[in-house]
Specification:
Low-confidence stretches: 311-322
Order of helices and strands: HHHEEHEHEHEEEEHEHEEEEHH
CATH class of the largest domain: Alpha Beta
Structural class: alpha/beta
Number of helices: 10
Radius of gyration: 32 Å
Strand content: 15-25%
Number of domains: 3
Distance between the termini: 69 Å
CATH architecture of the largest domain: 3-Layer(aba) Sandwich
CATH superfamily of the largest domain: Periplasmic binding protein-like II
């Protein structure tokens, strides 16, 4: 059964005459009549009885009409889906991201992306570092959010799109005064019990490298793979947590300052990575572009306490006048 014959049959059944159907389908009446005759011959039964100028469905024709309408509707939906695929606006997008990126960025960004691409299903996998790179190589994901230094400079396997930079912050109990002007030189942390991320984290390796440059032997009280564990311990006064500015800290009462070395911030560039050998679907490219704009709006997620309080004071008169 061809779609053309099914469409001709449904049109004649709905319009009731060959002349109207031929006009609607923009074909000659003899050609339309031949299509109906050929269709009846293919099926082995009559579809219409002629009553005057009108064609009335036989009982077999009535039963077949609903099936043909369903077939045409399905074919139409299939065509629409193919068009969406051609335009790159439907499919599955698999993205790997760190827990802090999922919490602080994706939890809100995914709503914005869904409004632009409602027919793309985004599947988020919690992974970072070497794990996400291995997933890219195996083709298990399209994109990986990572710090740019997760890949070697001469590694040609992965392409990248830089986002914003992640800065290293020191968080402590609110009563503890760290540094001055919202910053602290890394050497000033020598006497502090430090709460650090596991060495698998790139920001931890960045901190360790800065300690070596500064001649500092850090007093490590606790190391964890869970950044929020460090925040809870710092809030309770057990030490100073070294955290990335990408981490959301608003649920904790903390004094936060930026860690610097010789007056310069310790930071790591954030990026979206993908396998160069695997072409990205258009909706994945759009994801990267939209995420870049969104991250620019919201970064840094956490700022030094003095900067936050200063911004609040500047906003306060406006609120009173509202």
């Amino acid at each position: 059964m061809g779609l053309r014959r099914a469409r001709t049959f449904v049109t004649v059944a709905e319009l009731g005459t060959v002349s109207r159907a031929a006009l609607h389908l923009r074909i000659a009446q003899p050609a339309l009549s031949r299509q109906i005759s050929d269709f009846e011959q293919e099926l082995g039964f009559k579809l219409f009885d002629r009553v005057g100028r009108r064609l009335l469905l036989t009982s077999e024709g009535e039963q077949l009409l609903g099936d043909c309408r369903g077939l045409l509707n399905y074919a139409s939906a299939l065509g629409e889906r193919a068009e969406l695929l051609r335009r790159g606006e439907t499919g599955v997008l698999k993205v790997a991201a760190s827990p802090q990126h999922i919490e602080s960025v994706l939890s809100h960004f995914l709503h914005r992306y869904a409004r632009r691409f409602p027919n793309v299903e985004v599947k988020v996998v919690e992974a970072a570092g070497r794990v996400s790179l291995a997933m890219l190589e195996r083709g298990e994901i399209h994109l990986a959010q990572n710090l740019l230094h997760a890949i070697e400079p001469n590694d040609a396997r992965f392409a990248n799109l830089p986002l914003e930079s992640v800065e290293l912050l020191a968080a402590s109990h609110p009563s503890q005064i760290l540094g001055r002007g919202g910053t602290i030189e890394i050497g000033k942390l020598a006497s502090q019990p430090l709460l650090l991320l596991d060495p698998e984290f790139i920001v931890r390796r960045t901190f360790d490298a800065a300690c070596r440059l500064a001649g500092l032997r850090p007093n490590i009280r606790f190391a964890s793979r869970a950044p929020h564990t460090l925040l809870a311990l710092a809030e309770a006064g057990h030490g100073v947590a070294i955290i990335p500015s990408q981490l959301r800290t608003n649920r904790y009462r903390l004094n936060i300052v930026e860690v610097i070395h010789r007056g310069k911030a310790l930071r790591e560039p954030l990026a979206m990575l993908w396998d160069r050998r695997r072409p990205l679907p258009p909706y994945a490219t759009a994801y990267c572009e939209m995420l870049t704009a969104y991250v620019r709006e919201v970064f840094p997620i956490t700022r030094p306490s003095e900067l936050r309080s200063g911004a609040a004071k500047r906003r306060a008169p406006g609120r009173r006048n509202a």
